[in-house]
Amino acid sequence: MKKVLLTALIIMMALPLFAGGQQEDGAIEVGSNIYSFQDNFMNGVIKPELESYSEELGLDLSIVDSEGQQAKLNDQVDVFITKGVDVLAINLVDPASAGSIIEKAKKADIPLILFNKEATEAGIMGTYDKVWYVGTNSAESGIIQGEMMVADWNANPDWDKNGDGTVQYVLLKGEPGHPDAEARTTYSVKAFTDAGIGVEQLALEADPNWSTTHGNDKTAAWLTSSFGNDIEIIICNNDGMAFGAINALKAANVVLPVYGVDALTQALQHIADGEMNGTVLNDGVNQARATLDLAKNAAMGSDAVAGTDWVLDTDGTKAVRVPYVAVTPENYKDFF
Ligand code: GAL
Ligand code: CA
Fold first, then answer.
1. What gap in Å lies between CA 125 and CA 109, rounded to an integer?
2. CA of 161 to the centre of ligand 1 (A)
3. pTM metric for this prediction
4. Does domain 139-282 bear CATH number 3.40.50.2300?
């Protein structure tokens, strides 16, 4: 009888734990996604670090592919919530759709860490006390890339092919509406005008997938267009698209300065080979680590940054912002 009671008591005590989603071994369950497994940076840098660092922290992590569809992500979040995960770590597909995800998490009382793609709806982070963001200061990448280009432009007078003192540029933008794509576009070009150098945009193309194929196809088309010979610089808002631009340049036997963002290993190699002029380290390793540090703390009900070196913005964005770093032919070896 005593034994039966004890068993019943143990089951009863264990019930709330299972209901809360914790595993039998007590590991915290993290439900996570990547907006698209096709993305060079997200799949090549952030995802592997999420996987290895979750092991280090003893977290039970599931990562699903949202395949570039916000509707799919909404369903995936519903499944995680039904499963009873302890915390959500979400990479938005549509940065304007954070509200629906936040509402789901809030309703289920599950903490939520958004990462890499910052929500664009004003004030949305204030609608739930258990939501945080981990990413970067998007403008910083554009500023760093722009300053790098200005320094090189000034050091290479022959880059001004038509000698008009103005930079004739083409720009591969990435996902329209993505804070990184928008800010990089604005601030990289602004660096020239701030330095008193004129700018003329010959073409700009956006691509929600930030892809190498897109970079290749657009650059190839530009090179054979009416303004093909006028292009003086190719500005790429990420390395993936820059790789495509480099392929197209090689195929057309044309040499032009190319700049990217992310500092993927392949970009470092292109810099080593003299095919790329610079990139900006987008520190995915630390973004992944901060995401899981905050997730773990939040799941345990601790202060989000307790016991870590991460600092939260106090401007209402509730963000941890990992710094960008300039990567040039002078210092690229440090980043391999
Ligand atoms: C950016 C990154 C891009 C792409 C994008 C996806 O931070 O630079 O390469 O991965 O995120 O949201
Ligand atoms: Ca010029």
1. 15
2. 31
3. 0.92
4. yes
